[in-house]
Amino acid sequence: MLQKIKETVEFLENRISTRPEVGIILGTGLGGLVNVMEIEQSISYEDIPNFPVSTVEGHRGQLIFGTLNGKKIMAMQGRFHYYEGYSMKEITFPVRIMKFMGIKLLILSNASGGVNPGFEVGDIMIVEDHINLMKDNPLIGKNEHEIGVRFPDMSVAYDQDLIKKALRIAERHGIKLQKGVYAAVSGPTFETPAEYKYIRAIGADAVGMSTVPEVIAARHMGLTCFAVSVISDLGVVGKIVEISHKQVIDAASAAEPFMTRIIRELIA
Fold it and tell me: Alpha carbon of 82 to those of 129, 138, 233: distances in Å?
């Protein structure tokens, strides 16, 4: 892994002139943040050594370098998922690269199904904690001590100060924000009613198919994490309807301007 990281970092450093401070993973329907960035360089995943290639609709598949509100940014426009057939190490490889490129903060976004009865489609949920139901972990296998410790602490996976700041930003702009626990499943099927009920019973507020592997890898390397999720459908008894990927993208896109404003000010 270290050899692959060094090869990829060397490739990228030869193509950009500045070191990024913040890494951003832009999820389903939430790629519009790049429209407010001052983009300096865009590199297709296909051209980056050792990088997987995103295969999901709505995930463009490029690494973007630029500036946002005075901060140097490195953004993934399109992420990788376990259900695409990638290993956990492949999914989290870009996070490793971000760390070695110099970032201190990782911001993640996703779309999820709400299992909290108080949630509505289009709500934005700040992730306070997570539950890994993917039956795999990116840290399984030999541990590279140059990357992180064997048993990383996960008691505060998501930065509490950033959560408080985001809540203040939302209040200032009249943006409705929820807080909750995100459960990650492998996918690619959406959940059955019984699965929604189970996920709610074990303490989650929303369920999705991403984010948790990346956060585990980020915390393994000591990165600060902040994650936000757009509730794109509901897994609540009496509100469960047939859902498609297009509906997920549409719901996420409608909430995108609000999420973008929060993240822009949080970065500043």
Answer: 20, 11, 21
Per-position DSSP letters for 88-104, written without gaps between them = HHHHHHHHHHHHHHT-S
Q: Are 218 and 106 in contact (CB under 8 A)?
A: yes
- CATH number of the domain that residue 200 is part of: 3.40.50.1580
Query: What is the number of domains present in the chain?
Result: 1
Backbone angles phi and psi of 121, in degrees to 5: -60, 130
pTM: 0.93
Look up the domain containing 123 and give its range: 2-267
Contact call for residues 82 and 135 (beta carbons, < 8 A): no
**pLDDT tens column, 189-244:** 999 999 999 999 999 999 999 999 999 999 999 999 999 999 988 988 877 767 67
